[in-house]
Inverse folding.
C-alpha cells in the first residue's frame, strides 16, 4: 500500500498537507493524532487493515466493469423471472430526473424551506399512489413489500389491540418470513388460510373457520404470488370487517390500470412493491415499499414512516410542503414510535412519481393490458405443449403464472438448466416452496418481453421436453 | 448572495391537459392480441377497474420541466456545505453513479441462476470481507436497507442469542444512553425489549455508575454510539464492555458515527458484538432525499449463525447463496439488500484504499475541531460537556445564552443559515443539550467553505443581538418562507395527499 503522501485525494480537499498544517496551527495541535488521544492506546490500530490499495477513477471503472461483465443480465438473455422484483422498462426521463444532484445528494427534508422540491415530489408520489390504489393516505415509502407487510401487521395490532393475523397459504415465502421476523417480538400469531385446489382462490370456508375476535387483520395479495387474480377480494374484506379485523391488501401496482384498486373493495391498509414503477431491478435492491391507508385518524396515527403534507407558509401567502405527524416517528417519540424507520427509499419514490406522471391514467391502463396480453399469450402457447400444464390454477392470471412439468416427468430444475444452455432464463423453481404443486416453476412475462422472445421460450421448452 | 429558485410550481395534478401523455408503450402485436382475445372476458368482473385512475396527464416535455423546476428548489451536498450532525453528508462520487447504472448491475434479477451473477456475488462477498475488516467483525450481513433496519436486525440477533441460552424471557431490557439516536430505543422496542435509559456524565460520556446500576440479569444488551452524538469518544469503553458482558448482555455498536474511526480503531476490538454500518453515511452513497441507504450488520463469531439467509459463500471457484442456516433469524426484507447502493460503497473503498479511508477519518476530525475552534468564541454560543476536550467528527453547540439574551433560538439560527446558502446543522439533538446545534462538516469541504460557515454563524449571532427580527423571521432567500407545520399536522387541516386536500376543501374529482 503506497501512502498518499502530501498529495491530496480528489474527494478530500483539506488532505493537502499545507492546509492541514494551517488548520492544526489554528486548533493548537501538532499532529492530528492529538485529536485521537482519548482513544485508549490498546484500541488504536497499529497496522494497516487488509484492504486493497487505492485505485484511480479509471482503474476503479475498469475493475468494476470487468466484474460486472461476468454477469448475464436481462439484456444478454430473455429472463422470465418475477416474484417480488420484475423486469420493466425505465423511461429515460426517470433516469435523468433522479440523477439531478439537488435530489440525489440531499437528505431528509428536515429544513422544509430549502427542500421544497423534494417535499413536493414526495407529496406527489404519495398522491399518485393514492390515485392508483384508491386509498386516501400514503407514506413516502418503506423499504420494500416484505417489510411493508411486517409493518402493516404490527400497525393492525396497534389499531385494534388484537394479536392474530391471517394470511393466505399462497403467499411469497420471503414476505412471509420477513413478516414472521417483524411479528415475533410483538407476540403476533400468524395463521394460514387454505386455497381452493382447482383455482388457487382463497378458501372462504376456511377463512370463516379461522377468523375470530382475536384476528387483528386479514391479508391477501392481488395478484397473488403465483400470479392469479383473487376474485373474491371484496367478500374477503367483508368477512374481515364483520369480525372487526382490518383488511390488508398487497398489490403489484402495474396491475392497477386494469384491476380494481384495493380502496374500492374495502382495504384498510394497502401495501405493495413500487419497484416496477420506474426503478431498475438492481439484483433485488433498492426496492420501494408502498404503504397506504384509509382516511381515518385511528389508522393515520399508526402509520409507520414519513408522511409529507400540503400546507401554507406561516403568513398564509403561498402553498408549501413539509413533513407531518412527526410525533409518530422515532426521532421524536423514541421507544414509543410507530416504527424505527428513518432512512427510507425517497429517491425511488421520486422515480416512481416521475414514472406515474409520464404514463398517466391511459398509460397505466395500456401497461396493464400489454403485460396481461403478453403473459396470456405465453400461457396459451405453453398450455398447448404436450407435457406442460400452464397455469396450474384455473383463474385469470396477470403477469406471472405457474408452469408444471409433472406430465413430462421432468423436474423444474432440470428444465431450467436446459433452458439456460439455450440462453433463456426460465422461471423460478417453486417445487420446494409448494411441494403440493409438483414440479412447478413461476414464470413472469411483462411489456419487456417481445412476441418473438415468448415464442422462443416455447420452442425451447418443446425441445427440452422432447430431447431429454 | 444566495437566492434559491422560486418557481411557484403548481402541484402536478393542476398541470397538463386531458389526453396528453408522457410515455408511449410498445404496441401490442395484433396477432398476439387476437390470439389472447378480449381481456375483459378474462378478468373477473368483480375485479375490473371501472374508472380510470386520477393520475395527471402531461406530455414528456411538461414532466421534465416540472421535476427539473422542483429539483431547482432543493439543496444537496453538491450545492454546498451540509453540516447535518450525525448524518455524515459527504461528497458522493460521480463515477459510482455511472457504475451502478450499468446493465450488468441494474438489469440483474435477484433470482437469476448463480452461474449468471458471479460478478455481483464476488463484489458483495468482497465487500462483506472489507466491512468486516474495517469494523473488526467476524461476519457481515449486507441485507438491511438502512441503519435503522440494521438496528432492528441487531436487536433481533440479541433476542436469538438469549433465546438459545434459554434467557430470552428474563433478558427483556436494552440499555440506551440518553444521548442516543431515536432509532436505538425505537429499534429495541420493535424487537420486543423494554428500554432503560442511562444518563451521561459531565464529560458527555456514559455515566459508569449509572450503567453499573442499570445492568442486571434482565439486561439483553447495551446500544452505544462511539464517538457518541456529542462527538465525544467513550473513553471508558473497556469498562463499559466489561460491565455489560459480565452482566451477560451483548454490546451493540451504532455505526452512525463510524466516519472518524475508519482505519483508526475498530468496534470489534473494543468488545462490540454487533455493529451496524450506515453505508450512505460513511461510505458516501447518495442520501437521495432520505434514501435509499444500506445498513449492513457485522457480528462476532458467536452470533454469525443467527444472521439472515441467504449467506454468500465461496466454494473454491464459485460463489453461491446458502439458505441452509437452521438457526438463522430468517429474513428482514426481500432478497439480499440494497445491492446498487452496496456496489457504490465497493467502488468508494477501492477509490480510497486503507490510507485513503484513514485520511477520510482524520480530515473529518480535523475539520470538526477546526470549526469548533472557530465558533468557540462566538457570543451567544457555548460548548457544553468539557469544552476543552477535542471532539471527533462533530461538535454540539448550545444557543441557550443567545436565546436568553435575544430570544433567537437554535431553530431561528438554522433558518437564517439557509439565507446564506448553507444547510443548517441538526438542531435540538442530542436532547441533553438545550438549543442544540449539532455540526458535522465531514471531510468533503475545503477550508474556505468552513471559514465561510464560521463567518456566517458569527454574523447571525451578531444580527441576533443587533436586529433579532431579521433572524426571527428568516428565511428570506429560500424558495418559500417559514411553513405552517402546525396546520400541516392538525386533523382538521391536514392534507396528506391531493385527494385528501380536495376532500378537505370540498372539491370533488
Amino acid at each position: 500500500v503506497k501512502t498518499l503522501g502530501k498529495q491530496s485525494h480528489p474527494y478530500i480537499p483539506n488532505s493537502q498537507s499545507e492546509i492541514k498544517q494551517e488548520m492544526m496551527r489554528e486548533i493548537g495541535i501538532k499532529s492530528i493524532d492529538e485529536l485521537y488521544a482519548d482513544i485508549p492506546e490498546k484500541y488504536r490500530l497499529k497496522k494497516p487493515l487488509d484492504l486493497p490499495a487505492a485505485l484511480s477513477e479509471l482503474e476503479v471503472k475498469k475493475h468494476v466493469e470487468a466484474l460486472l461483465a461476468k454477469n448475464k443480465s436481462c439484456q444478454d438473455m430473455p429472463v422470465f423471472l418475477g416474484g417480488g422484483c420484475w423486469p420493466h422498462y425505465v423511461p429515460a426521463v426517470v433516469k435523468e430526473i433522479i440523477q439531478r444532484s439537488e435530489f440525489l445528494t440531499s437528505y431528509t427534508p428536515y429544513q422544509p424551506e430549502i427542500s421544497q422540491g423534494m417535499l413536493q415530489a414526495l407529496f406527489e408520489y404519495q398522491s399518485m399512489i393514492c390515485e392508483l390504489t384508491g386509498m386516501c393516505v400514503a407514506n413516502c415509502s418503506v423499504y420494500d413489500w416484505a417489510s411493508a407487510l411486517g409493518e402493516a401487521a404490527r400497525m393492525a395490532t396497534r389499531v385494534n389491540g388484537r394479536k392474530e393475523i391471517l394470511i393466505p397459504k399462497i403467499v411469497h415465502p420471503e414476505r412471509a418470513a420477513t413478516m414472521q421476523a417483524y411479528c415475533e417480538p410483538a407476540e403476533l400469531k400468524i395463521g394460514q388460510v387454505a386455497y381452493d385446489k382447482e383455482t388457487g382462490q382463497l378458501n372462504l370456508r376456511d377463512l370463516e373457520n379461522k377468523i375470530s375476535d382475536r384476528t387483528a387483520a386479514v391479508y391477501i395479495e392481488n395478484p397473488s404470488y403465483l400470479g392469479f387474480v383473487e376474485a373474491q377480494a371484496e367478500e374477503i374484506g367483508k368477512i374481515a370487517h364483520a369480525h372487526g379485523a382490518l383488511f390488508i391488501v398487497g398489490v403489484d401496482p402495474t396491475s392497477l390500470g386494469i384491476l380494481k384498486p384495493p380502496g374500492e373493495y374495502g382495504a384498510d391498509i394497502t401495501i405493495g412493491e413500487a419497484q416496477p414503477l420506474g426503478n431498475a431491478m438492481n439484483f433485488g435492491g433498492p426496492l420501494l415499499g408502498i404503504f397506504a391507508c384509509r382516511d381515518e385518524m385511528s389508522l393515520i396515527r399508526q402509520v409507520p414512516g414519513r408522511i409529507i403534507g400540503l400546507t401554507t407558509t406561516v403568513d398564509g401567502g403561498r402553498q408549501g410542503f413539509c413533513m407531518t405527524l412527526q410525533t409518530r416517528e422515532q426521532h421524536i417519540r423514541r421507544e414509543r414510535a410507530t416504527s424505527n424507520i428513518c432512512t427510507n427509499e425517497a429517491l425511488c419514490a421520486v422515480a416512481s412519481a416521475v414514472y406515474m406522471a409520464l404514463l398517466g391514467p391511459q398509460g397505466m391502463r395500456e401497461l396493464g393490458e400489454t403485460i396481461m396480453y403478453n403473459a396470456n399469450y405465453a400461457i396459451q402457447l405453453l398450455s398447448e405443449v404436450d407435457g406442460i400444464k400452464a397455469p396450474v390454477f384455473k383463474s385469470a392470471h396477470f403477469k406471472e403464472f405457474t408452469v408444471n412439468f409433472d406430465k413430462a416427468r421432468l423436474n423444474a430444475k432440470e428444465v431450467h438448466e436446459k433452458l439456460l444452455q439455450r440462453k433463456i432464463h426460465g422461471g423460478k423453481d417453486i417445487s420446494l416452496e409448494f411441494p403440493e404443486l409438483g414440479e412447478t416453476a413461476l414464470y413472469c412475462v411483462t411489456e419487456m418481453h417481445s412476441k418473438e422472445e415468448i415464442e422462443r421460450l416455447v420452442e425451447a421448452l418443446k425441445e427440452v421436453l422432447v430431447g431429454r | 448572495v444566495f437566492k434559491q429558485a422560486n418557481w411557484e410550481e403548481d402541484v402536478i395534478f393542476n398541470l397538463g391537459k386531458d389526453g396528453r401523455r408522457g410515455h408511449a408503450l410498445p404496441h401490442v402485436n395484433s396477432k398476439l392480441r387476437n390470439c389472447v382475445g378480449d381481456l375483459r372476458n378474462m378478468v373477473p368482473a368483480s375485479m375490473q377497474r371501472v374508472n380510470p385512475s386520477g393520475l395527471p396527464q402531461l406530455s414528456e416535455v411538461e414532466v421534465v420541466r416540472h421535476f427539473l423546476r422542483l429539483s431547482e428548489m432543493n439543496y444537496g451536498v453538491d450545492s454546498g456545505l451540509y453540516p447535518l450532525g450525525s448524518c455524515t453528508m459527504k461528497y458522493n462520487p460521480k463515477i459510482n453513479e455511472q457504475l451502478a447504472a450499468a446493465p450488468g448491475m441494474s438489469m440483474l434479477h435477484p433470482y437469476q441462476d448463480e452461474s449468471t451473477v458471479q460478478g455481483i456475488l464476488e463484489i458483495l462477498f468482497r465487500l462483506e470481507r472489507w466491512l468486516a475488516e474495517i469494523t473488526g467483525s467476524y461476519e457481515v450481513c449486507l441485507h438491511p436497507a438502512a441503519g435503522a433496519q440494521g438496528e432492528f436486525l441487531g436487536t433481533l440477533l440479541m433476542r436469538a442469542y438469549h433465546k438459545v441460552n434459554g434467557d430470552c424471557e428474563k433478558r427483556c431490557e436494552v440499555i440506551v444512553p440518553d444521548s442516543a439516536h431515536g432509532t436505538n430505543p425505537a429499534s429495541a422496542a420493535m424487537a420486543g425489549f423494554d428500554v432503560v435509559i442511562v444518563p451521561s456524565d459531565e464529560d458527555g460520556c456514559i455515566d459508569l455508575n449509572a450503567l453499573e446500576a442499570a445492568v442486571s440479569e434482565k439486561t439483553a444488551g447495551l446500544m452505544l454510539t462511539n464517538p457518541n452524538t456529542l462527538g465525544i469518544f467513550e473513553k471508558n469503553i473497556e469498562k463499559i464492555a466489561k460491565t455489560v458482558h459480565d452482566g451477560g448482555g451483548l454490546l451493540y455498536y451504532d455505526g452512525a458515527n463510524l466516519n472518524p474511526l475508519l482505519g483508526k480503531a475498530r468496534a470489534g476490538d473494543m468488545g462490540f458484538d454487533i455493529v451496524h454500518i450506515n453505508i450512505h453515511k460513511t461510505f458516501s452513497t447518495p442520501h437521495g432525499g432520505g434514501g435509499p441507504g444500506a445498513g449492513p450488520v457485522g457480528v462476532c463469531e458467536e452470533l454469525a449463525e443467527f444472521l439472515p439467509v441467504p449467506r454468500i459463500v465461496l466454494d473454491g471457484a464459485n460463489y453461491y447463496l446458502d439458505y441452509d442456516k437452521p438457526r438463522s433469524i430468517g429474513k428482514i426484507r426481500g432478497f439480499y439488500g440494497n445491492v446498487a447502493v452496496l456496489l457504490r460503497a465497493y467502488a468508494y473503498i477501492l477509490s480510497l484504499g486503507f490510507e485513503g479511508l484513514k485520511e477520510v477519518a482524520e480530515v473529518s476530525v480535523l475539520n470538526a475541531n477546526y470549526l469548533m475552534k472557530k465558533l468557540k468564541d462566538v457570543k451567544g454560543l457555548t460548548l457544553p460537556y468539557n469544552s476543552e476536550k477535542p471532539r471527533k467528527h462533530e461538535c454540539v453547540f448550545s444557543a441557550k445564552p443567545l436565546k436568553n439574551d435575544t430570544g433567537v433560538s437554535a431553530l431561528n439560527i438554522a433558518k437564517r443559515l439557509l439565507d446564506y446558502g448553507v444547510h443548517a446543522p441538526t438542531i435540538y439533538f442530542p436532547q441533553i443539550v438545550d438549543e442544540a446545534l449539532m455540526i458535522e462538516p465531514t471531510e468533503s469541504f475545503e477550508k474556505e467553505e468552513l471559514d465561510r460557515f464560521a463567518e456566517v454563524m458569527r454574523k447571525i449571532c451578531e444580527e441576533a443581538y443587533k436586529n433579532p427580527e431579521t433572524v426571527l423571521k428568516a428565511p428570506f432567500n429560500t424558495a418559500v418562507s417559514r411553513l405552517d407545520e402546525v396546520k400541516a399536522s392538525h386533523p382538521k387541516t391536514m392534507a396528506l395527499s391531493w385527494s385528501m386536500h380536495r376532500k378537505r376543501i370540498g372539491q370533488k374529482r
